[in-house]
Amino acid sequence: MSDQTQVTGVAERPVPQPGRDPLIVYRGVRKAFGRQVVYDGLELEVKRGESLCIIGPSGVGKSVLLKLLIGLLECDDGEIWFDGQRVTDMHHDEQFLPIRRRVAMVFQGAALFDSLTVYENVAYPLREQFRLPESEIKDRVAQKLAWVGLPGIEHKKPSELSGGMKKRVGLARSIATDPEVILYDEPTTGLDPVNIQRINQLILSLSERLKCTSLIVTHEMATVFAVAQRIAFVYDKKVAAIGTPDAMKNSYNPVVRGFIAGDPSTFGD
Ligand SMILES: Nc1ncnc2c1ncn2[C@@H]1O[C@H](COP(=O)(O)OP(=O)(O)O)[C@@H](O)[C@H]1O
Ligand SMILES: [Mg+2]
Fold first, then answer.
1. The whole model's pTM is what?
2. What number does the ligand 1 atom closest to the CA of 217 have?
3. Which helix (H) or strand (E) is 257 found in, with range?
4. Which residue among 52, 72, 85, 114 sits deepest, i.e. has the most Cβ atoms within 10 Å of its Cβ?
């Protein structure tokens, strides 16, 4: 092979291979809003089937990291790969549709449609993305409500539900399409300890049932230690540390250790 074939830039990059390579790769990602640089040189690899918690101070860029993956935001430089496809080559909503079909996002705040029943809320993404007979929609809605521990509440309206129940219906809606990847953004924020435990259990059981890959943004250490196989700590415009919960607890990096121990003095301001 001549040297010339090796100077063509992106063309010769190895394409990730199913089963071997990471499912998701962030490579040298930069993202700024005006003069505010959120990421500079972000590197992250997410393995197929793993549950990875993303932690870090408020405002550091955790939600941005998730949004970049599904094209709700575009990065300024670097690459993001999803299952061998280069997300950073996509610029239009329709190009993202195949990815968004495979990746569910559980947003901060359940944001159910108040005027619709629980049934119509959970059925919504199924109607939007697939053409299914009503009997199958009905089965899928019932299955997902059972999975989140709320069987038989199809006829209720969101206003009749508690905050914790709304979160779980929101989760049922997010997973109605049987996603391969679930992105959770602060799934337990604002919940009491019992409901936090419930959501933790749900994250675990969903990753078992769907055999999915989970990216969980949270500042709730109870959630981190209940669900994470690995933890990525976002700080200083990048993933500053990544490892198993044990490795992160015993990290030599005092900022990582301080954050995990919940010591705010680690951050100065
Ligand atoms: N669409 C946007 N336009 C301008 N600034 C944004 C936008 N989204 C996020 N930011 C800024 O980027 C930084 C990181 O935000 P975010 O990812 O939401 O932080 P967090 O780690 O708390 O989830 C914040 O300072 C936020 O103000
Ligand atoms: Mg956020």
1. 0.88
2. 23
3. helix 254-260
4. 52
